[in-house]
Structure formats: C-alpha cells, structure tokens
Request: fold
Amino acid sequence: MAVWKPDRFGWSWMVALVLLSSPTMVKASPDVNESEHQPTNVYHDIGVTRNKIVTAQFECYQKIMKENPQSRQEAMCNRTWDGWLCWDDTPAGVTSEQNCPDYFQDFDPSELVTKICTESGNWFLHPVSNRTWTNYTLCNERINEGRMTAMNPFLFGPHRTWIVFGLPLHIFGESFSILKV
Reply:
C-alpha cells in the first residue's frame, strides 16, 4: 500500500486549509463589555425603518402645530423636522443636541446629533449645498471603527496559535521529508 508523503505543496495546502476552515465573524466595540448584549438584525426591514421615520415625522408636525410659538424678543431658530429628527425652538447662537435615531442598523443611538442655530436666529446652512444641515456624522463613526477592527480577533485570536506553532511544525516536517529522500 502506497503511503502519501506530503511534499512542500501538500503541507502548504494543509496549513491553509486548517487556517481557513474556521471562519470567525466578530464585531468589536470598545464601549460594550461582556455583560451588555446589543443584538443587531442583519436583515433589518426597510419597511420598519420607513415606518419609524414617518411616525416620527407625523409626531413632529403635530408638535410643531400644537405648541404656541413663544413671544420672541430675541433671535431664535424655529422648530423644524430635518427628515430624521424633530428640533425644538432654539435660542440664537446655541448648538442643539439629541441622540442619534435608531432607524438605521449602522447608527449608534448613544451618540449625538447636532444642529447649529446661528447668531442671526437661522439654522446653519451647509457651505456647499447652501441648505439647512444637521450633523449626523457621529452616528456611525464608532460603528465603522467596529467594522475596521472586526478582523483583529481573526488575525490575533486563536488563529495566531496556528501561525506561531503551525509554521515551525511545517518547517520541522519539511526537514524530515528532505532527510527521507
């Protein structure tokens, strides 16, 4: 009976097969510890998102129409709906803040959204589009960091053991196969 002796090509394929046979999918976040579980729904239904936004918009417009405008003696930005969040009347020169909406899977509701009321009592206009602008950039900043570090456990976790021990074992095995020739 013929015995299979792995050559250099065979050893390389075996090591690659072992390293790639156990895929690891991890999302890393510096703010979440082991006692906190934050489930994410990969297949987030767009209809649910749309319904949340439409409901928030409806409630905002009701609030805008229901509340009486204050007798204004100072400059103030009017309450408004920006497409995702409802903003109350804000005194001039103040930056208003609220938590990011939970409409989107890649938004972190613990982060802050900002909207600037200028000294003249108008909402800040974006310099490029010349339209009122709300800063949502922090809402998915850490989410992107989590995606970038998702491969770290793969590269520096249990697979490191295969790199540390498997490579010398491969070299050691090669030396024996060379000696037997």
Q: What stands out?
A: The longest strand covers residues 95-99. The helical segments are 8-20, 46-66, 141-148, 152-156, 158-179. The two ends are 18 Å apart (CA to CA). Residues 152-181 form one domain.
